[in-house]
Specification:
207 residues; alpha+beta
């Protein structure tokens, strides 16, 4: 059994979407970050960086339990364990991993900063707003040009790279992006959003 520690954020939903796609049994433990539950000792034992998501797989490598934090590492682990959504070798594997890292290193962190300064900063910071909004638009442009070349971000196949990107694009209104300005992203967003596992995974956790 896999235990998923999560909250209703894009990073948390990456993992619940993949678990739904894989159809493997899992249980959810909510970590309410609005109440600082991510700092409780029991959770820190699983996720030392006090960030969701994290998992504990009771049947990890060698049949021993494995705790993992960092959403990208979790996606790669689960995809490799079950042999789905990440090519095992060759060019397709590395293309998938590069777009996963694009999300992890840029598309998530920069959009997260845009969310903060556009929605949550206690006072307006014009420089920060412009910096992170401009970078958000640039990243959407990169993604749009890539998706103009094929149905999914790394090519013809739906992979963990798409799963990682989707929950962030789902918050396009939070970072003041109109999807119609990026038609390839918009078409991909609608296509991925029709998958039953994506619909189910986006509802985790039920709060």
């Amino acid at each position: 059994m896999i235990t998923l520690y999560t909250w209703g954020t894009p990073n948390g939903r990456k993992v619940s979407i993949l678990l739904e796609e894989l159809g493997v049994p899992y249980q959810v433990k909510t970590v309410d970050i609005t109440r600082n539950e991510q700092f409780e000792p029991a959770f820190l034992a699983v996720s030392p960086n006090n960030k969701i998501p994290a998992i504990v797989d009771d049947e990890g490598p060698g049949g021993t339990p494995l705790a993992l934090f960092e959403s990208g590492a979790i996606l790669q682990y689960l995809a490799e364990k079950h042999g789905r959504f990440l090519p095992a070798e060759g060019v397709a594997r590395y293309r998938t991993l590069q777009w996963l890292m694009f999300q992890m290193g840029g598309f998530g962190p920069m959009l997260g900063q845009a969310h903060h300064f556009l929605r949550y900063a206690p006072e307006p910071v014009p420089y920060a707003r412009k910096r992170y909004y401009d970078e958000t638009l640039r990243l959407y442009g990169v993604l749009d040009r890539q998706l103009a070349e094929g149905p999914y971000v790394s090519g013809e196949a739906y992979t963990i790279a798409d799963i990682a990107l989707y929950p962030w694009v789902a918050r396009h209104e939070w970072h003041a992006v109109t999807l119609s300005a990026f038609p390839a992203v918009e078409a991909w967003y609608r296509r991925v959003g029709e998958r039953p596992a994506v619909v189910a995974g986006m509802q985790v956790p039920a709060v």
